[in-house]
Specification:
This protein has 196 residues and is mostly beta strands. It has a four-stranded mixed sheet with strand order 1-4-3-2, with no helix packed on it. The chain has a four-stranded mixed sheet with strand order 6-10-9-8, with no helix packed on it.
Length: 196
Amino acid sequence: KDLYDYEITINEDVNNIEITAVAEDSNNSINITGNSNLVNGSIISITVTGKDGSSTIYKIKVKKEIKLSSNNNLKSLVIEDYDLKFNPNEKTYFLTIDSSINSLNINYELEDEKSTVVINNNENLVNGSKIIISVTAEDGSLNQYNIQINKKQKSNTLTILFIIILIYKFNTFKEKIPYLLCADKGFKFILLVYKV
């Protein structure tokens, strides 16, 4: 009875508290205020008033136990120019990219906007690179999505630059007609085909 200030911790979803107070003197009146629409830091006042008009006020400070979100999932994951079949429960993906690609344009959406995202290893991509997408929830719990990179190797197939067909027609002689096929940038070969 000689302690006038108190503190109570309640769950975040509790908005009202029912308080029962009994005065030492049954002739005294009790008035309780501030015990509804509670927020963190609310003050509940219990005023005890005697017959002579004197009063004593007891105060209870409300502390709400705020539960932090543990949601560290991505809602969507899109890589520009690539068809990635995203599933929030799938943590590892394999992606084949062109040999000229050095980084990817990655877009994502969070299930919980209170979480944060960090993307690592999305520069100077080589065959075997692993992009790591780390999602940290409000409560600090971590979730990671991995994208394993497979780079297409430069083709060793000879590229045909141009084809020249020389057709010689003879009116009096039935000669063989040569077809000259020039291929490859460095003219690594010349193919002659004769039509008979």
